[in-house]
Protein backbone atom coordinates (compact mmCIF):
# COMPACT_ATOMS: atom_id res chain seq x y z
CA UNK A 1 0.00 0.00 0.00
CA UNK A 2 1.44 3.39 -1.00
CA UNK A 3 0.28 5.89 1.62
CA UNK A 4 1.80 9.09 0.30
CA UNK A 5 2.32 8.59 -3.42
CA UNK A 6 3.14 11.69 -5.38
CA UNK A 7 0.23 12.60 -7.62
CA UNK A 8 -1.01 15.77 -9.27
CA UNK A 9 -2.88 16.61 -6.05
CA UNK A 10 -0.19 15.73 -3.51
CA UNK A 11 3.21 17.23 -2.86
CA UNK A 12 6.35 15.56 -1.68
CA UNK A 13 6.27 14.56 1.97
CA UNK A 14 9.63 16.06 2.68
CA UNK A 15 10.86 19.39 1.40
CA UNK A 16 14.11 21.03 2.39
CA UNK A 17 14.73 24.43 3.90
CA UNK A 18 17.62 26.59 2.71
CA UNK A 19 19.75 25.00 5.47
CA UNK A 20 18.99 21.50 4.16
CA UNK A 21 16.82 20.54 7.18
CA UNK A 22 13.86 18.35 6.28
CA UNK A 23 10.44 19.85 6.90
CA UNK A 24 7.27 17.83 7.25
CA UNK A 25 4.83 18.66 4.50
CA UNK A 26 2.79 15.50 4.25
CA UNK A 27 -0.38 16.13 2.35
CA UNK A 28 -3.55 14.13 2.70
CA UNK A 29 -3.28 11.06 0.53
CA UNK A 30 -6.22 9.95 -1.59
CA UNK A 31 -8.61 7.86 0.51
CA UNK A 32 -7.96 4.65 -1.38
CA UNK A 33 -4.26 4.89 -0.56
CA UNK A 34 -4.76 5.13 3.21
CA UNK A 35 -3.90 7.47 6.02
CA UNK A 36 -2.75 7.35 9.62
CA UNK A 37 -4.22 6.51 13.01
CA UNK A 38 -2.98 7.76 16.37
CA UNK A 39 -3.83 5.48 19.27
CA UNK A 40 -3.53 6.63 22.88
CA UNK A 41 -1.68 3.74 24.53
CA UNK A 42 -1.72 5.29 28.01
CA UNK A 43 -1.64 8.69 29.71
CA UNK A 44 1.97 9.02 28.54
CA UNK A 45 2.24 7.16 25.23
CA UNK A 46 0.83 7.12 21.69
CA UNK A 47 1.21 4.94 18.60
CA UNK A 48 0.99 6.13 15.00
CA UNK A 49 0.26 3.55 12.32
CA UNK A 50 -0.98 3.51 8.73
CA UNK A 51 -4.62 2.49 8.30
CA UNK A 52 -7.23 2.72 5.56
CA UNK A 53 -9.78 5.53 5.72
CA UNK A 54 -9.76 8.90 7.44
CA UNK A 55 -7.11 9.89 9.99
CA UNK A 56 -8.35 9.01 13.46
CA UNK A 57 -7.30 9.47 17.06
CA UNK A 58 -8.48 6.63 19.26
CA UNK A 59 -8.34 5.76 22.95
CA UNK A 60 -8.80 2.31 24.50
CA UNK A 61 -11.63 3.66 26.68
CA UNK A 62 -13.90 6.69 26.98
CA UNK A 63 -12.23 7.46 30.33
CA UNK A 64 -9.00 8.44 28.61
CA UNK A 65 -8.82 11.96 27.23
CA UNK A 66 -6.65 13.32 24.44
CA UNK A 67 -4.29 15.69 26.23
CA UNK A 68 -1.95 18.38 24.92
CA UNK A 69 0.86 15.94 25.71
CA UNK A 70 -0.69 13.33 23.40
CA UNK A 71 -0.99 16.06 20.78
CA UNK A 72 2.71 16.97 21.04
CA UNK A 73 3.79 13.33 20.90
CA UNK A 74 1.42 12.72 17.98
CA UNK A 75 3.03 15.62 16.10
CA UNK A 76 6.48 14.17 16.71
CA UNK A 77 5.30 10.73 15.57
CA UNK A 78 3.56 12.11 12.45
CA UNK A 79 6.57 14.19 11.40
CA UNK A 80 8.95 11.28 11.98
CA UNK A 81 6.73 8.91 10.02
CA UNK A 82 6.49 11.40 7.14
CA UNK A 83 10.26 11.81 6.88
CA UNK A 84 10.91 8.08 7.15
CA UNK A 85 8.22 7.22 4.61
CA UNK A 86 9.58 9.75 2.13
CA UNK A 87 13.07 8.29 2.57
CA UNK A 88 11.68 4.78 2.02
CA UNK A 89 10.03 5.84 -1.23
CA UNK A 90 13.20 7.58 -2.43
CA UNK A 91 15.35 4.56 -1.51
CA UNK A 92 12.75 2.19 -2.99
CA UNK A 93 12.22 0.46 0.36
CA UNK A 94 8.98 -1.19 1.43
CA UNK A 95 7.53 0.81 4.36
CA UNK A 96 4.63 -1.60 4.93
CA UNK A 97 3.85 -1.92 8.61
CA UNK A 98 5.99 1.02 9.78
CA UNK A 99 4.68 2.19 13.16
CA UNK A 100 5.94 4.87 15.53
CA UNK A 101 5.49 4.77 19.32
CA UNK A 102 6.21 7.85 21.42
CA UNK A 103 6.18 7.88 25.21
CA UNK A 104 7.26 10.59 27.61
CA UNK A 105 8.19 11.32 31.20
CA UNK A 106 7.62 14.43 33.26
CA UNK A 107 9.90 16.61 35.38
CA UNK A 108 9.14 19.33 37.93
CA UNK A 109 10.36 22.88 38.65
CA UNK A 110 8.74 23.74 36.31
CA UNK A 111 6.35 20.88 35.52
CA UNK A 112 7.10 19.86 31.93
CA UNK A 113 7.88 16.95 29.62
CA UNK A 114 11.39 15.86 30.56
CA UNK A 115 12.03 13.29 27.85
CA UNK A 116 10.52 11.52 24.85
CA UNK A 117 11.21 7.94 23.88
CA UNK A 118 10.50 7.42 20.16
CA UNK A 119 10.55 3.85 18.92
CA UNK A 120 9.73 2.65 15.45
CA UNK A 121 8.86 -0.83 14.31
CA UNK A 122 9.53 -1.48 10.63
CA UNK A 123 8.98 -5.18 9.88
CA UNK A 124 10.03 -4.96 6.22
CA UNK A 125 13.26 -3.01 6.85
CA UNK A 126 16.48 -4.93 6.26
CA UNK A 127 18.64 -5.01 9.44
CA UNK A 128 21.55 -3.38 7.58
CA UNK A 129 19.34 -0.26 7.04
CA UNK A 130 18.41 0.21 10.72
CA UNK A 131 21.10 2.78 11.59
CA UNK A 132 20.31 4.79 8.46
CA UNK A 133 16.61 4.77 9.37
CA UNK A 134 17.46 6.13 12.85
CA UNK A 135 19.46 8.96 11.26
CA UNK A 136 16.55 9.72 8.93
CA UNK A 137 14.17 9.88 11.91
CA UNK A 138 16.32 12.65 13.38
CA UNK A 139 15.62 14.81 10.30
CA UNK A 140 12.06 15.47 11.50
CA UNK A 141 11.52 19.20 12.02
CA UNK A 142 9.49 18.62 15.19
CA UNK A 143 12.46 16.64 16.56
CA UNK A 144 14.78 19.56 15.75
CA UNK A 145 12.34 22.04 17.34
CA UNK A 146 12.29 20.05 20.57
CA UNK A 147 16.09 19.84 20.60
CA UNK A 148 16.41 23.57 19.94
CA UNK A 149 13.29 25.13 21.47
CA UNK A 150 11.90 28.31 19.99
CA UNK A 151 11.40 31.53 21.88
CA UNK A 152 7.78 31.91 22.96
CA UNK A 153 6.35 35.40 23.29
CA UNK A 154 3.14 35.80 25.29
CA UNK A 155 0.90 38.84 25.04
CA UNK A 156 -2.72 39.51 25.80
CA UNK A 157 -5.46 42.03 26.24
CA UNK A 158 -8.16 42.47 28.85
CA UNK A 159 -11.37 44.39 29.02
CA UNK A 160 -13.28 46.09 26.24
CA UNK A 161 -11.44 46.88 23.04
Characterise the protein shown here.
The chain is of the alpha+beta class and 161 residues long. It has one domain (14-147): GMP Synthetase, Chain A, domain 3. 24% of the residues lie in helices and 27% in strands. The protein has 3 helices and 7 strands. Strands 5-3-4-6-7 form a 5-stranded mixed sheet, covered by helices on one side. A two-stranded antiparallel sheet has the order 1-2. The protein is globular. The N and C termini lie far apart (53 Å).
SSE diagram, text form:
Layout: E1 14-16, E2 22-24, E3 35-42, E4 45-51, E5 56-58, H1 68-90, E6 99-107, E7 112-121, H2 130-137, H3 141-147
Parallel strand pairs: 3-5
Antiparallel strand pairs: 1-2, 3-4, 4-6, 6-7
Task: Name some characteristics of this structure.
GMP Synthetase, Chain A, domain 3, alpha+beta, two-stranded antiparallel sheet, 161 residues, globular, five-stranded mixed sheet
Write a short abstract of this structure.
This protein is α+β, with helices and mostly antiparallel strands and 161 residues long. The chain is built from three helices and seven strands.
As a percent range, the share of strand residues is 25-35%
The coarse overall form would be: globular
Number of strands: 7
Low-confidence stretches: 1-18, 25-32
Mind telling me the C-alpha Rg?
Answer: 17 Å
Amino acid sequence: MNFFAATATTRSIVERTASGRAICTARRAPREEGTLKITLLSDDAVRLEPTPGEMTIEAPSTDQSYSPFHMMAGGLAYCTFSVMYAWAEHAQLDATGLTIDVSWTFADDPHRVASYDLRFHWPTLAPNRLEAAKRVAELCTVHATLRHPPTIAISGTAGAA
